[in-house]
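Entry 14. Ran structure prediction on the chain below.
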Amino acid sequence: MKYLFILCSLWLSAMGADAEQDVPQPTDPKPVKEKSIKKKVPLRMSADTSNYDAKTGLITFQDNVVIEDVKFRLECNKMVIHYHKKTKEQKEKGQKAGIEKIVATQGVKIIQPDNQATADRAIYLFDEQTVTLQGSPIVKYKDGRELRSSEIVYDRKNDTIRTRRIQINADSLIDMQPETTP
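Output, structure tokens:
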């Protein structure tokens, strides 16, 4: 049970901004500067097995891994969290070590309200705030558009997407019928 608490705490810290939401303060009749507070969002996580190795700084979840909160759901068969070890300076300053990266493999599916992505592998780099989908990744949007590539990189900081060898299917949005003349 102790390890489950540690694992959930580590995942929450890995989620960074996704694990918290800005919630406006109640309005006051007097004009006051707009403020916001951070509020924790519920996170559910399950896996058939898990393993924590303090020597290597690896946490492994295996078989039927599911992580979900109010904004997304991630499913895969294996997830490894790579945890930075504390440096001597961090220990002296009382700082916590953090998560370096999270690697999800084997049937990765990410479901959000407006889209769904599938891939063989997803890599989340915590410091860079990037999610890289590899192994025939496909992103399907609610409106029918579909993005396929050999690799898709989503930069969360800049809200940008980079791809390699892209293919976009948007038949419902592009009219390819030739114009007819009377």
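The two ends are 76 Å apart (CA to CA). Will compare against last week's run tomorrow.
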